[in-house]
Amino acid sequence: MNRIIIFLLMIFLATSLFSQSAVDLFKKGNEAYKKGDYKTAIESYEKIISLGYESGDILFNLGNAYYRTGQFANAILNYERAKKYDTNDKEIEHNLAIANLRIKDRLEKVPRLFIFEWWENIKNIFSLHIYQYFIFILFTIFVISFALFFWVKDVILKKRILFVSIFLGLVFAFFAIAFISKAVEHDNDKYAILFEQSLKVKSAPDQNALDLFEIHYGIKFKIVDELEDWCKILLIDGKTGWIKKNGFEII
Amino acid sequence: MKKITFILFVLVSFLKAQNISFEASVDRTTVGLGESFELKFTIKASNINAVRGFKPPNLSNLFILSGPNQSTSMQIINGAMSASISYSYILQAKNPGSLTIGPASIFYENKEYFTKPITLNIVRSSTQPKQNQTQQNNTQVITKDLSQNIFLRAFVDKQKVYKGEQVNVTFKLYISGVGVSNYTVSKTPSLKGFWSEEYNLGQQVTLGTENVNGKMYKVGTIRKLALFPTQAGTLEIDPMEIDLILQVQVKRKRSNDFFDQIFGDDPFFNPYTNIQYKVKSIPVKVNVTELPLSEAPESFKGTVGKFNLESSISNTKPKTNEPVTLKLKISGEGNIKLIETPEVKLPADIEKYEPKITDNINKNQAISGSRTIEYLFIPRYPGEKVIPPIEFSYFDLSKKSFVTLKTPEYKLYVEQGSQTYSSGATNREDIKLINQDINFIRLDEKAVKLKSDYLYKSLYYYLLYFIVICLFFVVIAYRKKLDKDLSDVVGLKMRRANKIAIKRLAKAKKLMDSSRFEEFYKEISLALWGYLSDKLKIKTSELSIDKVVNLLYSQNFDEEIVNTTKKSLELCEFARFAPNSETQVEKLKVYEEIKNTIILIENNFKKEL
Fold first, then answer.
1. Burial class, B79, CB count within 10 angstroms (exposed 0-12 / middle 13-18 / buried 19+)
2. What is the pLDDT of residues A8-58, one digit of tens each?
3. Which residues have a Cβ under 8 Å from the Cβ of B244 and sit 6 or more positions away?
4. Cis amide leading into B129 (omega within 30)
5. Which residues does chain B have within 8 Å of residue A53's beta carbon, measured at their own beta carbons?
6. Cβ B448–A91 below 8 Å, yes or no?
7. Rounded CA gap, B298 and B391, in Å?
């Protein structure tokens, strides 16, 4: 028992020490950024992340520092990563849009049926982190209402509580489906940012295959399939093709 | 020529003549210092094609003015052919004294032949031209004199200028006593460090006269350039070279000929020859001073001269998507072509296009003219838009200071037009964004958080749900138990109702016996009401006769029993309000009746259970 306490204490101390140096690094990075020394800022923020820290704000700052040094692919990559923590953050969206203007490729999103857009928006109300708590809270409320239904003896009140309870149950089910689909998407869908200046996209996973189109530095694409050292990519405008597995970074 | 040599070859090989002569000769053996003379090597051979490898003697102590000039001649006399090759040099002695020209050599049919050395006597002065001058030699002399009679000069109007100030450079050709039949500029100055603008002088060179060092010259301006130095320091204007074809009078040797004596000096009778002659100007230096740039305003872009600024706007009340032109006219003296287009700082929602530039340049005394800059822009959104003043600065040479000119501030009142902008919504969004910058970084230290994996991936997350569900069942179970306990309390009451009623009836009997009627009625009615309350599981306070009747009916009691109960209850009520109205017997009857009713109900309950 004593040993366990000492062990836990040590872990606590170690993490708090680390956390102190991470906070210092964060401050150092911010100061460097303010002074315009973006290289030092990048180093500091990258160091924090290498220590095992990560948050939307750190990634956002890192993206900004990369943007200032003209490394737009890196900037886009970090903004996209920040978006995973802070979904629907206006500042991140804005900076991402500006960084996307600095790269060569301009893609038009494929228009979809409004209901899919709507469903997409529901999925993106919260980040996955917040979503999981949200779903749990919804579930708890639903169970409480159901328990209340059993508790109350008065017939009329019981009836009313039953309606509320059913409604809450449906809301829970709806968001649970959204959450599950988002989680599945998160675990299975791979997006990447291209770091190569330009890359020819082939029609098949073969060096001699036909060149379909060319993509440039900083473009975002989805990896839909993989085969040996090739992967099939999907652009947001719906184009697909095969590229070799290098020169890009998974978001 | 080839044909001839071929024929020659055939002939010569036919004759198989072996004789050859190789001689060196000079036109005179006594030469004045600075005078030119001719050295000639003549080869006469029957088979001229066999002559190979002419090697001239060492001529390092002589100036070679021309040569070796090769000539070939052929003679056929009485069927005997002779051909000759000659190599001639025009030479000039370097030093006075005796000079020996060494032997020259050739190969002829694998044999080497040499000339005899020639000894020359170089004398210091030769004021007296030699009598036996050849015609060719005459030309040579004339060429030497020409440098006095024809030359090219470059003039600059200013020696010391500011960077960007105009300097005029004129190339003038001076001619005296010779005719020029043609000229071509063979080398134009490269003018490093200058921006140049050429004056238009017309096709024909007009000649004037000028006196240089007491000698009259005809002067023609070949070229006039306006130069604008683009760098400070001492800049050099490279020489210009002109190839001329001159008509030169050849002086004939004086003879005792009658005609010569009469017409000897008359140029009309002297023949002319065309000779080529090259003239070159002397490099000219210009000292360029840097402008006092520390005093320069921000809008100064290197323009020097004297300028005016005019501006006009096509429309101040445009509709959206209607183009507006802002015209800027910069006119004056200076290098118009080097004026940089001043920048217009427009509001972000006005689209700006590349300005259109038109120049109008006069090349008279100084380069002057005007540059018109037309800025085209299209307001995309309605509202009041301000075009801030456009600034244009230049360095005024007469004031020796910088001058800044400004246009007035223009205000546009943009009205909403009906025309829609067709180039696509996304583009417009792009343009809007381009004028924006990224948001600033976040400074809150709370941002430093450990990277956490998603909770839903761990078992604990689902354990939470499990706990909630368990709690739910605990709550349900608790409710059930409470319900059960409650029902037990009621059941107990019901079971004990009979006993309480009996107790109360017994008490009532005692009260009746001791003639305390008021208390008797109270007790007896309490016994009945209390019994009914416990049995029917309703509170005493909620009881009324009607309610009891209804409840009894709902519990399927016989009408008889219900009526009896109703009667007894009414009796109780009546007796309570009039306790002393009945006799002892009647009171006993009431007691018995109520007791019976309780027993009746009790029995019926038991039946049901």
1. exposed
2. 666 665 565 556 688 888 988 998 888 888 889 999 999 888 888 888 899
3. B150, B180, B182, B183, B276, B277, B278, B279
4. no
5. 448-451
6. no
7. 9
Rg of chain B, C-alpha, whole Å: 68
Question: From CA B155, how far away is CA A238, in angstroms rounded?
Answer: 72
Per the DSSP assignment, residues forming a β-bridge with A89 are none
pTM given for the model = 0.42
Nearest of A203, A225, A199 to residue A212 by alpha carbon: A203
Contact B519, B525 (CB under 8 A): no
- A60-89 residues touching B, CB cutoff 8 A: 60-61, 64-65, 67
By CA distance, what is B436's nearest residue in A? A98
Chain-centroid distance of CA B453 in Å reads 46
A249 — contact with chain B (CB < 8 Å)?
no
In chain B, what is the straight-line distance between the N-terminal and C-terminal CA atoms, in Å? 157
Task: List the one residue out of B408, B440, B411 whose CA is nearest residue B347.
Answer: B411
ipTM over 0.85: no
Q: State how far the Cα of A195 lies from the Cα of A77, in Å rounded to an integer.
A: 10
Q: Which of A26, A94, A183 sits opposite B439 (nearest CB)?
A: A94
* Cα–Cα dist B597/B528, whole Å: 9
Token readout for A75 is 């900037």
User: Is residue B167 within a helix (H) or strand (E), and if so which, with residue range?
Assistant: strand B167-175
Identify the CA nearest to B195 among candidates B174, B225, B219, B151. Answer: B225
Name the band, by pLDDT with cuts 50, 70 and 90, for residue B129: very low
Cβ contact, residue pair A65, B456, below 8 Å: no
Distance CA A100, CA A218 (A): 8
> Which of B436, B440, B451 is closest, CB to CB, to A54?
B451
Name the token pair of B139.
């030309």
Helix (H) or strand (E) holding A170: helix A155-188
pLDDT at A137 over 90: yes
Say if CB B199 and CB B226 are below 8 A apart: yes
Nearest CA in chain A to B431: A101
